């Protein structure tokens, strides 16, 4: 493994963003279509000239890598800031935070938020429609652990928009498929229920009254599409 890349300085990020914006123009799709046509029938010598004339080369690659390196932390930032921004709007009078989990991955805390009155998970993901198995798997995992938690507290699952998450939860996707990449989840589910439930809708209908699905974009207009 090679040496770790140092995070680029803020000035370098600005330069990288400007370089990429200049390359993309008004539309990256249109720009790429133009390049596909431009490079058609080109040979080794002409590709070098075309690349130079179109500002394509190592500098552009480095700019893209610098932004990708920073963008890898954006989802973590959105998750953390989103939760903190939502707190004043969702907490009730005399409700006190007991635990927060703002980082990515396994932080040793079971839920994003636990107060003296509720447990909650937050999903700052915009569903696009079509095949979204990764989003579906993650949503089911959070719903399941909220539903099965041993607590008398209220349970909340905050999402951006209700239509597509509900369509999945009320749908007929096979549960084995949903949990196939999470062995711990699958094992826990099988220990509790064996083969009692076959599809997502069956389990959701059984536990739907336990977990409240809340549209965060209705609470925080800044999150609306």
In a nutshell, what does this entry contain?
This protein has 225 residues and is α/β, with parallel strands linked by helices. The chain is built from 11 helices and 5 strands.
Question: What are the main properties of this structure?
Answer:
225 residues, alpha/beta, 2 domains, 5-stranded mixed beta sheet, 5 strands, 52% helix, elongated
**By helix and strand content, what is the structural category?**
alpha/beta
Radius of gyration: 23 Å
Strand percentage, roughly? 5-15%
Please give the order of strands in the largest beta sheet: 1-2-3-4-5
Low-confidence segments, given as residue ranges, are none
The H/E string reads HHHHHEEEHEHHHHEH
- Overall form: elongated
Largest sheet: 5 strands, mixed
Number of strands: 5
Q: Count of DSSP helices?
A: 11
Tell me the number of structural domains. 2
What is the share of helical residues? 40-55%
Distance between the termini: 41 Å
Overall mean confidence score, pLDDT = 90
């Amino acid at each position: 493994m090679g040496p770790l890349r140092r995070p680029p300085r803020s000035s370098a990020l600005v330069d990288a963003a400007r370089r990429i914006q200049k390359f993309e123009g008004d539309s990256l799709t249109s720009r790429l279509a133009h390049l596909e046509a431009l490079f058609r029938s080109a040979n080794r010598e002409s590709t070098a000239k075309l690349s130079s004339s179109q500002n394509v080369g190592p500098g552009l690659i480095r700019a893209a890598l610098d932004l990708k390196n920073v963008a890898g932390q954006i989802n973590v930032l959105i998750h953390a800031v989103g939760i903190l921004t939502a707190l004043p709007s969702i907490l009730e009078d005399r409700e006190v935070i007991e635990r927060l989990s703002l980082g990515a991955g396994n932080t040793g805390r079971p839920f994003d938020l636990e107060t003296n009155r509720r447990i909650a998970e937050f999903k700052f993901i915009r569903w696009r429609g079509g095949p979204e198995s990764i989003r579906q798997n993650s949503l089911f995992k959070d719903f399941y652990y909220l539903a099965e938690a041993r607590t008398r507290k209220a349970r909340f699952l905050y999402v951006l928009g209700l239509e597509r998450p509900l369509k999945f939860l009320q749908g007929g996707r096979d549960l084995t498929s949903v949990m196939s990449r999470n062995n711990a989840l699958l094992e826990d589910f099988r220990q509790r229920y064996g083969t009692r439930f076959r599809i997502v809708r069956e389990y959701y209908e059984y536990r739907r009254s336990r977990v409240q699905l809340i549209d965060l974009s209705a609470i925080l207009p800044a999150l609306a599409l």
